[in-house]
Specification:
This protein is of the alpha+beta class. It folds into three domains: 10-102, no CATH class; 138-246, Band 7 domain (Tetrahydropterin Synthase, Chain A); 252-310. It is 47% helix and 21% strand. The chain has helices at 12-39, 46-65, 112-118, 169-175, 179-195, 214-229, 248-288, 295-310; strands at residues 10-11, 68-71, 75-81, 84-89, 93-96, 104-108, 128-131, 133-135, 139-142, 146-149, 155-166, 234-246. Strands 9, 10, 11 and 12 form a four-stranded antiparallel β-sheet that branches. A hairpin with a 2-residue loop joins strand 3 and strand 4. It starts with 9 loop residues before the first strand and ends in a 16-residue tail after the last helix.
């Protein structure tokens, strides 16, 4: 695997005046030499040699001007000379380097879809040039909604956002063909694999789920991504799920199941509260000696109270005018 080599670059301002002097002064002195040679009727003398030398100096100045480049903050440039990596400049500023350093690091083939967007036939597209400058800024990759199976085999839809940045420019430039495409493809693959490790909901005891264990799922996804993207010199700062739902073919069935579970959970709370209230009522009646009830009357009272407390419809009161036992 490649390894980044940080190198300093020569300040572009100090070389700019020299190169401009050669570029502008060469043609001027070339014209002066031709004029002096014409005045002296000397077609092969020193003035002609001076004119030719100045013309060559001007050409050299133009070539040297091509070596100037600038870098913005959080931007780097890989220095590649005839296919050999010489290092990476990371500091922002205006610099000069060997003008023969390549301004592209590679060419990647363009597929039919990209060629169609460019309005060119695939047969006439030879590839897309990748610049030698590499951005070190944080990037967001928002994945498409993927249809996968969770741990229990239920089809679900899932999407995530990944925050990543280039840390090692040599790996990003030379160990993978196109690190941006590599990040996209590997991110989608990692999302699919992570989704298969967790159940959508209702996992086993103390088991994290996709819906209930957001932190655990994000940590697992980030670790999975970092292992995959290490080869490209990319660091994953954050990975979070942005979309999570059942697939349309089972969404209605799962919605009914969730509704039934919600009803059952609510009923459990209602019954638990009703039993506590009945118990409290019987205990207070016994402690205050307001009325003595036998077991049969206690059972009837418990039944009536549970019907009143647990029933969905409002209870209708009945006034009993007889005695307790008649």
């Amino acid at each position: 695997m490649s390894k980044e080599i940080p190198v300093p670059a020569t300040s572009g301002w100090s070389r700019l005046f020299l190169n401009l002097g050669l570029t502008l002064g060469g043609p001027v002195l070339f014209i002066v030499g031709l004029v002096m040679a014409n005045q002296n009727n000397d077609a092969e003398g020193p003035w002609i040699a001076l004119a030719i030398g100045c013309l060559l100096a001007g050409v050299v100045g133009v070539v040297l001007l091509c070596g100037h480049f600038s870098l913005q903050p959080n931007e780097a440039r890989a220095l590649i000379l005839f296919g050999e990596y010489h290092g990476t400049v990371r500091q922002s500023g205006f610099y000069w380097a060997n003008p023969f350093y390549s301004r592209t690091r590679a060419r990647v083939p363009v597929g039919a879809a990209e060629a169609a967007k460019a309005g060119q036939p695939t047969a006439h597209v030879f590839g897309r040039a990748l610049p030698a400058k590499i951005s070190l800024r944080a990037n967001n990759f928002n994945s498409q909604t993927l249809k996968v199976n969770d741990k229990r085999g239920n089809p679900i839809e899932i999407a995530a956002v990944v925050v990543w940045r280039v840390e090692d420019t040599a790996k990003a430039a030379f160990d993978v063909e196109d690190y941006e495409s590599y990040v996209q493809i590997q991110s989608e693959s990692a999302i699919r694999h992570t989704a298969s490790l967790f159940a959508y909901d209702h996992g086993e005891e103390h088991e994290a789920t996709l819906r209930g264990g957001a932190d655990e799922v994000s940590t697992c996804l980030r670790k999975e991504l970092q292992e995959r993207l290490e080869k490209a010199g990319v660091v994953v700062d954050e990975a979070r799920l942005t979309h999570l739902a059942y697939a349309p073919e089972i969404a209605q069935a799962m919605l009914r199941r969730q509704q039934a579970e919600a009803v059952i959970a609510a009923r459990q709370k209602i019954v638990t509260g009703a039993v506590s209230m009945v118990e409290m009522a019987l205990r207070q009646l016994a402690d205050k000696h307001l009325v003595e009830l036998d077991e049969e009357r206690k059972a009837a009272m418990v039944g009536n109270l549970l019907v009143v407390l647990c029933g969905e419809a409002e209870a209708q009161p009945i006034i009993y005018t007889g005695t307790l036992y008649h």
